[in-house]
């Protein structure tokens, strides 16, 4: 009984595999005049030019947006680059990798809490870690200069956590040519 069922099943499988799929009907393209072909070519070229211009504009817009987001932020007394800023770091690293003549200065900053010496050291560690992340993302180490300003260049001068959070940062500045 089992052999009979197995034989019928195999026979059905073989029959299904041996059937030919229906062939699609192929139609010949209509002949066109030379004027219609040249118009179509011109239209295709114009569309390609428009596409290239749109892509160039999109790239320029993306680059401008990347240049506006040039700071990475750190929690209190931390010098490790945070996951929230990985995209910013990678965007700058890709830009630097594709523009080998570009140079940046990474400026490490700290909030006002702590001694001046400690904040200078913390700012330098933040700048160095940001540089390391840029290099890991594809930038060349020779393109990047680091400096620490410690608490000397605050972005906000109020004495509260919201303000201090703005001052705990590393700035990526392309003006360092």
Describe this structure in words.
The protein has 177 residues and is α+β, with helices and mostly antiparallel strands. It has a domain at 82-169: 60s Ribosomal Protein L30, Chain: A, CATH 3.30.1330. It is 53% helix and 12% strand. A four-stranded mixed beta sheet has the order 1-4-2-3. Helix 3 (86-98) crosses helix 4. The longest helix is centred in the first third of the chain and has 35 residues, at 34-68. It is elongated and about 90 Å long. The N and C termini lie far apart (86 Å). 21% of the residues are buried. The mean pLDDT is 82.
Strand order of the largest sheet: 1-4-2-3
Structural class: alpha+beta
Radius of gyration: 31 Å
Looking at the overall shape, the CATH architecture of the domain at 82-169 is 2-Layer Sandwich
* Outline type: elongated
If helices are DSSP runs of H or I spanning 4 or more residues, what is the number of helices? 5
Largest sheet: 4 strands, mixed
CATH topology of the domain at 82-169: 60s Ribosomal Protein L30, Chain: A
- Look at the structure and name the CATH superfamily of the domain at 82-169: OmpA-like domain
């Amino acid at each position: 009984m089992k052999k009979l069922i197995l034989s019928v099943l195999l026979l059905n499988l073989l029959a299904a595999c041996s059937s030919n799929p229906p062939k699609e009907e192929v139609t010949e393209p209509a002949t066109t005049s030379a004027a219609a072909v040249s118009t179509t070519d011109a239209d295709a070229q114009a569309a390609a030019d428009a596409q290239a211009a749109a892509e160039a504009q999109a790239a320029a817009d993306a680059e401008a947006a990347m240049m506006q987001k040039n700071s990475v932020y750190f929690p209190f007394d931390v010098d490790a680059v945070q996951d929230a800023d990985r995209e910013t770091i990678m965007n700058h690293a890709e830009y630097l990798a594709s523009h080998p003549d570009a140079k940046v200065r990474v400026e490490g900053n700290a909030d006002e809490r702590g001694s001046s010496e400690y904040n200078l050291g913390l700012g330098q560690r933040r700048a160095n870690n940001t540089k390391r992340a840029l290099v890991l993302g594809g930038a060349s180490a020779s393109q990047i200069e680091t400096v620490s300003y410690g608490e000397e260049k605050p972005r906000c001068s109020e004495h509260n956590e919201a303000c201090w959070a703005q001052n705990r940062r590393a700035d990526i500045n392309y003006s360092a040519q």
